[in-house]
Amino acid sequence: MTEGTAAALSGLTVVGANHRSGPTRLRDALFLDAALLPGFLAQLRGAGVRQALVLSTCDRVEVQTAGGDPGRDAETVRHALADRAGLAPADLDAHLYRHEGASALRHVFAVAASLDSLVIGEPQVLGQVRAGHEISRAAGMAGAELDMILSAAYAAAKRVRGESAIAEGPVSIAAAAVQVARSLHGDLAACTALLVGAADMAEIVATQLRRAGLRDLVVASPTPARADSLAARLDAHICAMDELPARLAAADIVLASMGTGRYQFGADAVAAALKARRRKPIFLVDLAMPGDVDPAVDALEEAFLYGLADLEAAAMQGQAARRAAADAAWAILDEEVAAFLRRGAEREAAPAITALRARFEAARRQVLAEEGGADVDRATRLLVNRLLHAPSVALRRARGEGGRPAELEAALRDLFDLKEMPASGTEKENRDED
After folding, report:
1. CATH second-level architecture of 169-319?
2. For the chain, what is the radius of gyration of the CA atoms?
3. CATH topology for 3-163?
């Protein structure tokens, strides 16, 4: 690899918690609104981190660092995240993941391509990475190494989305939700939706409903910062969590995305809301894992409950097609990771190749100067022998000193495309003429 590529990879570290490693309450405690990111980056810089990107979403809070010592940077990030959550670093360890070097590179690529998301292929993730990158640049925390890696990650994400069916998943899920909403309520311009929680998939569906003409949207979250940020992005109103029973009766569409393991909407509450609505239907979309809506709600007349799996089935024509798309996407991503590493290795070899060319050219000029160009056959033979002198001596020394002649010979075959070993006696002839 080139010096820049090698430095970028050797200093690359990722530390964070996501939907698999940490519970919702921990991710809520770690969550950093965009307005807080410059201050957090300044904290990292003050602790010695040279370059960093902070990705803070509903599904993950992670820090990608570059350009420094990976072990030291990882410890700095670990302590900063623990401080943010109000925990001792040791209490956070069970929920943190950590990657370095090539493993971190693959993770960064996978995040940008939305292959490490709760819902694979969701389109917002790449935009979130780009936004975090811009914040890092503005804070003076994005250098050559981080820029190089993220630029390659963006290219990998573009290829994954362009060459696989993975990008169709979330968009189709949101489109399926819009289609059901329209079949129940007709013109969405006359509807009100209630979004509870702030998961990325819920925001995607809400965005599509807005684009389809949804009139009113109300958001609620136990984390005020998340509610404020989400309401700003969706041009929505905010309500407190204790207002949900009253808001439920006014909601034509409910998007549930808390995932706390406790039902936010029980059958009794929904039945009471339907009674207050005079049996006007409610479309409930349960996007949480685990679910937010009691499955018993599905038995209520005029309550139409759809889970994420229902929408996936409608949009993706079964889980088999979805897995096939994901497998193809991962294959593309791994090709991009390998290509990044290979390009670096090839560029790293360039100085050695340049030196070899210079050595050969110097020998050629010396032979021409000595022979004067009078005897082409003798001059070229002398040139070949001089060029072969150093590798021949190295091979003889390896054999005589118990080195690794077989490995050297294999390297020569590979470097010079030698299909067969030279004929017996050639080395002696070359040595005699050298």
Report:
1. 3-Layer(aba) Sandwich (3.40)
2. 31
3. Beta Polymerase; domain 2 (3.30.460)
Domain with CATH 3.40.50.720 in the chain: 169-319
Just list the catalytic residues: 58
DSSP three-state, residue 252: coil
Query: What does the pLDDT profile of the chain (434 residues) look like in tens digits?
Result: 555 566 678 889 999 999 899 888 999 999 999 999 999 999 999 999 999 999 999 889 999 999 999 999 999 999 999 999 999 999 999 999 999 999 999 999 999 999 998 777 777 889 999 999 999 999 999 999 999 999 999 999 999 989 988 866 444 688 889 989 999 999 999 999 999 998 888 999 999 999 999 999 999 999 999 999 999 999 999 999 999 999 999 999 999 999 999 999 999 999 999 999 988 999 999 999 899 999 999 999 999 999 988 888 777 654 456 667 888 999 999 999 998 988 766 665 556 556 666 667 777 777 777 766 557 767 777 777 777 777 777 777 776 666 676 777 777 777 776 666 554 444 444 444 44
Model pTM score: 0.58
Q: Where are the alpha helices (DSSP H) in 235-375?
A: 244-250, 267-276, 308-316, 319-371
Beta bridge pairs of residue 53: 64
Separation in Å, CA 302 to CA 214, 250, 275, 309, 340: 20, 14, 10, 21, 54
